[in-house]
Structures
1.
Amino acid sequence: QETRLALQEAHLGGLGEGPMRSILARQLMLTGSAVQAVALLTDNTNAPLSADDLDILAQSCLALNRLDEARKYGESAAAKDDVRESSLIVLANVYQLRGRDSAAIALLERHRTRFSRSSRYLFTLAFSYYNRKDFAAAGELLDQVVSQDPHLAQAFSLKGSCLANLGKLQEALPNYETAVRLQPDRFLYQFQLGRTLSILGHKYQAEEHLKHSVELNGAHAPARYELAKIYSETSRNDLARQQLEAAIKSDPGFESSYYLLGRIYSSQGRHGGAAGLMS
């Protein structure tokens, strides 16, 4: 806060052009004042925007969910010879959010050699390959990512999903286990591990991870559904029914819950309820 105030005083004192303006804008962005950072760089000034300015603007606009502006500033930054890594990642993120993964891949591949030592950069590229269902290419990139940053839980989770989509569940399992070990409070990692364990027949372990996933995020219907399947398979239909009813309440569009709940209603003699669910 003291640094921020000192920079603001310097700016007001007439030292706010060029590098000083960029320093203040970045400090504003880093301290959660993205709106002020954007205003500082764009309001009442004809000064040219440097690569650093464009980077700040792209990041700030993305943080504010102003995607069109983030794309505009990101593309301007990408056209500069001294483009920042973060500018490219922001622009790729915008493309990904807009479903333009091929554009993200083309952008990041163009600068890949320069940023090949950045696990964050390679992960962003791998994510677009994954979205485009090129699981082999994504997996190769993720191998580089985890070798550079063995503490990046997100990379292990995505690597597990690549292997799972390639039908290699047994190989996916240790990746999901590592993601959970690194970040046990992420409901999605607990769900991925629990579902994989269940498919591989390790029902007791799967149940524990799925229950933990539900505890972390009760609105995630797939976790409740997978837990209900285990309950149903082990003749605990009342518990299965409770999970499925909660899953439908939290996500009425998750159709698998209706089919399983209908079967459970039928097994309990509640045929009218089953018919209503299946219609």
2.
Amino acid sequence: FGMDTLHPAESIAKLRTQYGDFFDLYMFRITTLGSQDSILMAQKIVSFVTDTNFRNIANDIGKTFGDFSEEKEELTQAFKYYNYYFPDKPIPAIITLLSAFSYPIVCDSLNLGIGLDMYLGKDYRYYFTLEPPLPNYLRVQMEKQNVVCDAMKGWAMSDYQIDEASARVIDMMISEGRIVTFLEYVLPDEEDAKRLGFTQAQFEWCEKNEKLIWSFFVDNKLLFSADPNIMSKYTNDGPTTSAFPKESPGNIGKYIGWKIVSAYLKKHPKMELKQLMEEKDMMKIYQESGYKPAK
């Protein structure tokens, strides 16, 4: 844990120097160990790092990920692609952490934090002790092999996610789909299903039913709705999507958004990824895509 429990104040000062703003982000937002009262904060941190359960979890992270070198290599490669497409953007420092089951990925302007306790496998014993319990659709994604994809997705979303408060369904669909397209560029060898966060079976169901999905949104006049309830129904993760068969994935809107962005790029073959990601007008992408699913 890198913490001298006999001299917590000195350890805290060292950690603050080492991690800068990310230290406060970890203490106050990720774990809520932070406090304006320095003595209370030291007590809370010592209690955290000596807690038997958290020490067990830290050991399990070590068993699962070792020195994290495999994932680090994949992230280094992904950020080489990222640097090619976004030469003016900083490459973040990668920080692995124990998030106390709060955040898988957390970013600030210079750091990409990965909560490895959120990737210990769908049947990991501690996941079943959480209150409220973790639903199955979340646990199935909490696998080691999703770390790199989730990290790159989180980094892209920290820069390019649109404001949900002023968005309509079509805007959110395209914004989410655009993040999937970003992943195609920086993780070119990854499977489509994984970039979408779907199981292979859910992805294949979408591919077979693309026209049906699109017709549903058009026929029910949902595309231009700004109703938050409708938005969350079709653009939030879940076990499946309301009004669709159980084989469908949650967040089916992301799939259609990705297809719209793909159609837009076919119509604009010289468009660079940076230009696509910096486009603020989702409606323009939709209108210029000419999207029409095949029968």
3.
Amino acid sequence: MRKVDIVFLYEHAARELDVACAISAILQQKYGLSVEIIQWPVGFLNALYNLQPRLVVLPFCYTEKSYPKLLAAWRKSIFFNMTWEQLFYSGNRTAKTPRGEFAVHHVIHHAWSQSYASFLQQQGIPENHIYLNGQPAYKLYDEPYRRYFASRTDLAKRYGLNSECRWLFFPENYNWAFYTQATIDQFIRNGQSPDDIQAMQEYCKKSLRETVLWCVEIVRSDKVEVILRPRPSTSLTEFQEVVSQCIPSIPAGLHILNDESVRDWVLASDVVVSSYSTSLLEAAIAGKPVYILEPYPTPSSLKMQWHEYLPHLETRQQFMKSCLENTQEKAGAILEKWTREQMMASEDAIGRLAEILSHLLGREASVPTVPSWRASIPDVELRKRVIMWTLSQRLRAILGWHKMTKVPAEYVNDYLESDVIKTRIRRWNDVLFGVPPNGVGSA
């Protein structure tokens, strides 16, 4: 088993991998630390008995049930929670609140805002295990990080877009229209209101249909190219099936793509429109005209404070006018100011995050105690299942059966092979340091 300083787990490549690769480049070049970047949960199974990390970066951590198999193998590591979702609406706050002995007492938590740091303290998490640092992905829109992303010219060539037209980027986030019944049932078990869930589902289904129809109409003007991007956890096939129920065929000028990152498209586009997606915060940071599309009144369970800082497009006419006209009005300027003040506590959240991880490994900062088996997996029946699973995986490793032969369909967009991740890290090294990486990889 190979020892490594840090295993960096990511869940959604589109949301998290740019930050993970940039931080990995800094950790290796500036601090001399070894890093492995692994997709959770697919890549983790392959790495389980090959690596022994000193520190594990988690994409989220709400309860010990989030990672029972990981805790069985890497329980003695330091755990650092990136917490990639921190902007809540009432419809998801309960499910995404850290709770239980492991999440509260044995994990270090990363906070984007003072508001979220205070929220964590209210859950009983010690103040010295909370790092107020800011949203690292927002820093990707500033120098030098923004140099990493594809240019408008490159994107036009790759996807057959007319660079002379206005580009409208619509990062879709009608998530409640796509959740399975099993997921809905789990939300209800976690304390979500069934009435709120029903209202959110109905709103998202109706709004998605209207969005597709409005996008079809605007591309008929021949003045706009629309890039409609499904949310990371919705497959392209699944999204296209829903679109096909709204329109008989996809017209030229409407591009349904999940290739490239949100950052590539935000930086290259002329205007960004979405529902309640936090991608609008990123577009505001990038200085783009930004709008919320609201064809139907938004349920109170989906509303967030920052929505009030953006213009809302409630009619088809408002949508057409705002997206077609070359206006100097900087829609989103108020949101940009709010986001930089509230969600970017550090001047460089990416560089500081690398520094924090280095200090934790060097024991220059407070580190939680190692959780007991009982704290890691308090549910006795779950503990028994995990023990049996662990024994079976050890046997599979001995027999050479542990290698993954096929990526599950739901993770195809997120799981990247080792060579692809290493190529990304090489690009980040070139952008940030002008040198190739040394000793940074992925499992």
